[in-house]
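User: Please predict the structure of the protein below. I'd like the answer in structure-token form so I can feed it into my own downstream comparison script.

Assistant: Understood. Taking the following sequence of 220 residues as input:
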Amino acid sequence: MSSRTLNLSDSVYEYLQTVSLREPPVLAALRAKTAEHPMGKMQICPVQGQFMGFLIQLMGANKALEIGVFTGYSSLVVALALPADGKIIACDNREEFTAVAKPFWEEAGVRDKIDLRIAPALDTLQELIAAGQAGTFDFAFIDADKSNYDNYYERCLELVRAGGVILVDNILWYGRVADLEAQDNRTQRIRDLNAKIHADPRVDLSLLPIGDGLTLARKR
């Protein structure tokens, strides 16, 4: 969750968007609406959204999972990139946030692709596993409460197929992970997960300094 990529000057960031960003009007409108929200900085940046959509198309993904919907920008990015028969299961526990998303999903014509589950995400993930959906997802995006990042990662690793990709957002945490004086719980949880994924033989790894830091873990 970050409104822009870290450590880029205003002029460079503007140039980057000018020559790269192709944001459909419905996404731009949702981003503008979210910017009015008191917690609007929780939304991913548009450059990151475009990268996620590109990755979905590059993979030929058909079945996706999202943990942390907020106002639905990332859900919409993924749904737009999925094929006509594609589906995304979107997990959140705050209806007041996801209510913002629904009109934009409808406007974009992708509402039927998005299966919104309002419940604690760990419960939803465990229900999917119990229902025999382990190893059936192509793509997962984690952008929710940091205290459960490790739990979300483990459940997603079970749910994605071999060759599937898990994206974990906020992995640089506004630079706090590199500040040894920052010892709060959320920062330490992210540090711990970074170290765990770095050493995890179950995945291939790339950490990109896009937005607030985005880890890509490909299940082997």
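That's the full token string. The first strand starts at residue 63 and ends at 67.
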